[in-house]
C-alpha cells in the first residue's frame, strides 16, 4: 500500500484529534505532530483549522458506508437502508462508543464560532437525508415501507436518530445497546414491526 500524502496524513490525524479532543481542543500543532509533519507544512495544505475540519468531515463520511445506499447488487431499497445503519452501528461499536459521530461533534463544536464548518456538516446531513428519502420512496414503491410514511420527514428523522444514538452512546458506553437502538429506531421510523 502506498504511503499517504502529507495532506492525507494531516486529514487522518485531524479526524482522530477532533474525535479525541473536539474541535476547540485539537490544535494545529498537535494535529501536525500526530501526522508526523512540521507545523508549518500544515499551512501548505490548509488555509485554516476550519478548512481542515471540512476535509476531515468529508474523510469521515467517506468511511461511513454511504456506498451501501447506492449498491446495485442489493435490489431492495429497504435492505440498503438497513445495511447502512447496521454498518454504522457496528462501526460505532468498533471505534469505541466514547467517540460518537465526528459530524455531530463538529456541528456542535462549531455552530457558534465556525459557521462554515457547521454549514458544511449540515450540507452533509442534508445530502444524506436526500439519499435516504429517495430510498424510502423506492422502498414504498417496492411495497416494503407503508405509503403512509412521510419519506421527507422520516429521512431527516433517520439522520437525527443516528446522531442521537451516537451521542447517547458516548454517555452510556454500550455499543450493543446503541446497535439495538438503531435497529429498532430505523424499523419504527419506517413504519415496520
At a glance:
The protein has 193 residues and is mainly alpha-helical. It has helices at residues 6-25, 28-34, 39-45, 49-62, 77-95, 102-110, 115-141, 151-172, 175-189.
Order of helices and strands: HHHHHHHHH
Low-confidence stretches: none
Q: Compute the gyration radius: what is it?
A: 18 Å
Measured by DSSP, the beta-strand proportion falls in under 5%
Counted beta strands = 0
How would you state the average pLDDT, rounded? 93
| Overall helicity | over 70%
Judging from the principal axes of the Cα atoms, what is the shape?
Answer: elongated
Structural class: mainly alpha
Task: Describe what you observe in this structure.
This protein is mostly helical and 193 residues long. Helix content is 73%, strand content 0%. The protein contains nine helices and no strands. Helix 1 crosses helix 4, helix 5 packs antiparallel against helix 9 and helix 6 crosses helix 7. The longest helix is centred in the middle third of the chain and has 27 residues. It is elongated, with a radius of gyration of 18 Å. The termini are far apart. The mean pLDDT is 93.
Q: Which keywords apply here?
A:
mainly alpha; 193 residues; 9 helices; single chain
Indicate the topology.
Elements: H1 6-25, H2 28-34, H3 39-45, H4 49-62, H5 77-95, H6 102-110, H7 115-141, H8 151-172, H9 175-189
Helix pairs in contact: 1-2, 1-4, 1-6, 4-7, 5-7, 5-9, 6-7, 7-8, 8-9
Amino acid at each position: 500500500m502506498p504511503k499517504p500524502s502529507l495532506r492525507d496524513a494531516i486529514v487522518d490525524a485531524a479526524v482522530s484529534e477532533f474525535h479525541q479532543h473536539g474541535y476547540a481542543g485539537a490544535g494545529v500543532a498537535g494535529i501536525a505532530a500526530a501526522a508526523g509533519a512540521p507545523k508549518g507544512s500544515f499551512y501548505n495544505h490548509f488555509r485554516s483549522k476550519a478548512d481542515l475540519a471540512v476535509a476531515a468531515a468529508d474523510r469521515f463520511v467517506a468511511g461511513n458506508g454511504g456506498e451501501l445506499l447506492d449498491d446495485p447488487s442489493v435490489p431492495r431499497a429497504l435492505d440498503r437502508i438497513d445495511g447502512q445503519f447496521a454498518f454504522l452501528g457496528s462501526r460505532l461499536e468498533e471505534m469505541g462508543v466514547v467517540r460518537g459521530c465526528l459530524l455531530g461533534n463538529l456541528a456542535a463544536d462549531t455552530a457558534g464560532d465556525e459557521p462554515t464548518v457547521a454549514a458544511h456538516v449540515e450540507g452533509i446531513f442534508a445530502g444524506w437525508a436526500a439519499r435516504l428519502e429517495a430510498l424510502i420512496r423506492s422502498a414504498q414503491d417496492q411495497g416494503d415501507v407503508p405509503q403512509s410514511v412521510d419519506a421527507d420527514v422520516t429521512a431527516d428523522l433517520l439522520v437525527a436518530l443516528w446522531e442521537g444514538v451516537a451521542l447517547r452512546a458516548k454517555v452510556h458506553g454500550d455499543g450493543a445497546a446503541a446497535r439495538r437502538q438503531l435497529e429498532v429506531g430505523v424499523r419504527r421510523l419506517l413504519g415496520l414491526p
